[in-house]
Design brief:
The structure is a homodimer. The first copy, chain A, is mainly alpha-helical. Chain A has 2 domains: about 50 residues, Homeodomain-like (Arc Repressor Mutant, subunit A, Orthogonal Bundle); about 120 residues, Tetracycline Repressor, domain 2 (Orthogonal Bundle), CATH 1.10.357. Chain A is about 70% helix and about 0% strand. The termini of chain A are far apart.
Chain lengths: ~190, ~190
């Protein structure tokens, strides 16, 4: 198998370190060390850490499997549940956040291009989730009184806070609470 | 009026910068510059930035006015609403997070003493909120089927995510959604 290109190695290391440490604590040297490439090679591929972060955010967004939220073969509530289970199961050690959330906490106030990308990521996620909620209402699975779009935003916000809580707790309690309240009290 | 002590100036600047920039991007020199004191004076008062952060977290927690959640003179749901309105109204420019959330995103994986303090802050907040929810149930204002403790955790998590979203959006939309879903769909 061909070795991944140096650019790809740097991008992969950037995604990992932005998730583990956030934006500010992941230095260019940390990223090239993790990638196993010389520090100088970074700037052959990316103009700045901010430029890498923009591509890393896109890569991370693609890995969220948002299209699963539109999979008509699975009933809507089950589909929404599996989506959040997938996101939870990526985080077995409660030590990595969500890149959208990490960047919101650290960098959106200080980089307008990254802010717009983070906002776009949140919006895309909420849109897909809102569509699944609306389908669940049509199927009689979700309370008809809920407005799908704000409900979707609320759920993504509750999820982001759940990740923060799980990192502080180092237990799965916050995830268990997220699933119980979301599926037994809010949606149905 | 007597000038605040140097230690107090440093602490105040630390609280501000941890809220504005988070833990990692607020350097000791940034903090002493903001406080208007020489950098060297920092270590006369605090052993490290981590030690300052621990005190700043406590100071910030005190400023959350959690005791208002136990004010028996105000009906429970109104009390809970005013609590979150107070937290919202502190953030007119959508550019400062919550210190608990900022530290969860950035530092709890890397400092066990700070992790335990952040966890303690979240737990104390949720406890006070759970008590108010339970009172609301006794008063017939809040759905009896909700378990107060997990519901309180869910609300604080939704709030933390709401702050992240508001920072990415730079609008009050996420706050409006928080209030609508929390008070019109989840609690009542």
């Amino acid at each position: 198998m061909a070795r991944r290109s140096m650019k790809e190695e740097i991008l992969g290391a950037g995604v990992d370190l932005f998730l583990e440490r956030g934006f500010n604590a992941a230095g260019v040297k940390d990223i090239t060390d993790r990638a196993g490439v010389p520090k100088g090679s970074f700037y052959n591929h990316f103009e700045s850490k901010e430029a890498l972060a923009a591509v890393a955010l896109e890569r991370y967004g693609d890995s969220r499997r948002l299209s699963d939220l539109a999979n008509q073969e699975i009933p809507p509530v089950e589909r929404i549940r599996r989506h959040f289970e997938f996101l939870r199961d990526e985080l077995p050690d409660f030590a990595r956040g969500c890149m959208f959330g990490n960047f919101s906490a650290e960098i959106v106030d200080h980089s307008e291009p990254l802010r717009l990308r983070v906002k776009g990521s949140f919006d895309q996620w909420s849109e897909m989730l809102a569509d699944a909620i609306a389908e669940g209402q049509e199927a009689g699975e979700i309370r008809a009184s809920l407005d799908p779009r704000p409900t979707a935003h609320y759920l993504t916000n509750a999820w982001e806070g759940t990740l923060l809580q799980a990192r502080a707790d180092k237990t799965g309690d916050a995830f268990a609470i997220f699933f119980t309240i979301t599926f037994d009290a809010l949606l149905t």
